[in-house]
Write a structure and sequence with these properties.
Elements lengths: L23 E12 L2 H8 L8 H14 L1 H4 L10 E9 L3 E12 L4 H19 L7 E11 L6 E2 L2
Antiparallel strand pairs: 1-3, 1-4, 2-3, 4-5
Helix pairs in contact: 2-4
């Protein structure tokens, strides 16, 4: 089959061959949030969670996840990322906002890496706080920005 597809000539799932694509600077930003009881957010901000620095550990988990996306998502290309930044911002009274920025110069985009970083950071917050708040919700994980490559720039509304 020609073009960029996840199917080979026999119709089987396959990794897309991107070797003919031009290398460009590619950037993706993803966002999400964890909604929790106000008391849980207060304990996170006060450093009163028994498992440690929730936001610091979630930041590291998000960065590590972005770097390992190809191990988690089938048919995703292993990439040499040039930058991964994960920001976690308390949003009183009851949420933590998460934003991941991922960059590289390459032949394929980094949307999946940014989305994976946000999701794993959110799951880390849940894991670290679940003993005191099992009702937490991970919400609104989405691509917020993408640039580079043939398809151009995308900005979420």
């Amino acid at each position: 089959m020609s073009g960029f597809t996840h199917f080979d000539d026999q119709g089987r799932a396959a990794m897309v061959d991107v070797s003919a694509k031009a290398e460009t600077e590619r950037v993706a930003v993803a966002r999400g949030r964890v909604v929790m009881a106000p008391e849980t957010l207060a304990r996170i901000q006060e450093g009163q969670i028994g498992k440690g620095d929730v936001l610091g550990i979630a930041r590291i988990a998000g960065i590590m996840a972005a770097k390992r996306t190809s191990d988690l998502i089938p048919l995703c290309h292993p990439l040499m990322l040039s930058k991964v930044a994960v920001d976690l911002t308390p949003a009183p009274p009851d949420a933590v906002e998460i934003e991941a920025l991922v960059k590289l110069s390459g032949r394929t985009g980094v949307e999946m890496e940014a989305l994976t970083a946000v999701t794993v950071a959110a799951l880390t917050i849940y894991d670290m706080c679940k003993a005191i708040d099992r009702g937490m919700r991970i919400e609104a994980v989405r691509l917020a920005h993408k640039s580079g490559g043939k398809s151009g720039t995308y900005e979420a509304e």
